[in-house]
Amino acid sequence: MKKIVVTLSLLFAFVFAVKAQKIGYVNTKDVLSKMNEYNSAQSEIDAVSKKWQAELEKLYQNIDNKYKEYQANEVIMPEDVRKDKQDEIYKLEKEAKEYREKKFGYSGELFQLQDAKVKPLQDRIIKAVETVAQKKRLDLIFDKAGGEVTWLYTNAIFDITADVQKEMGIDVGPDAGSGSDPASGGRK
What we know:
This protein is mostly helical. It has 6 helices and 2 strands. It has one domain.
């Protein structure tokens, strides 16, 4: 019985603590998608990525051609020539792997380009979120776009996405009073 009373007391205290805080949420993915700078940066990143991917595919095609040539002539090759061809293929494979890592790896050039182009825009969004939170006297702001927080229901009155867009000077249009679909009851 004592456990039940303690548990109910803690639950009761938690409910009041949560109700005392004002919460808002923003969909940063939506904000980013409406920023011309982001769309331009994303187009540039995509173009560079496609170029590097095409170069990588050429490297792998060259390796494939060398390997097929090696297989076709392997039987008639002297041992020293066969060894040289194998070494050449291994060297080309190593170079392709290094190229892939240099361009597409975790700290590769593509990651650095994305960071250089998108991070300043994300910083602007954070600054706008902080400004809106202070104006609306909100205690907590969640990013609905992150994917880590799953919301089964969100009340549209707490959506500050349009406010953040206005703070950043992004035209939100006449029907963008909130970031949710009114037909879904605020659910996204």
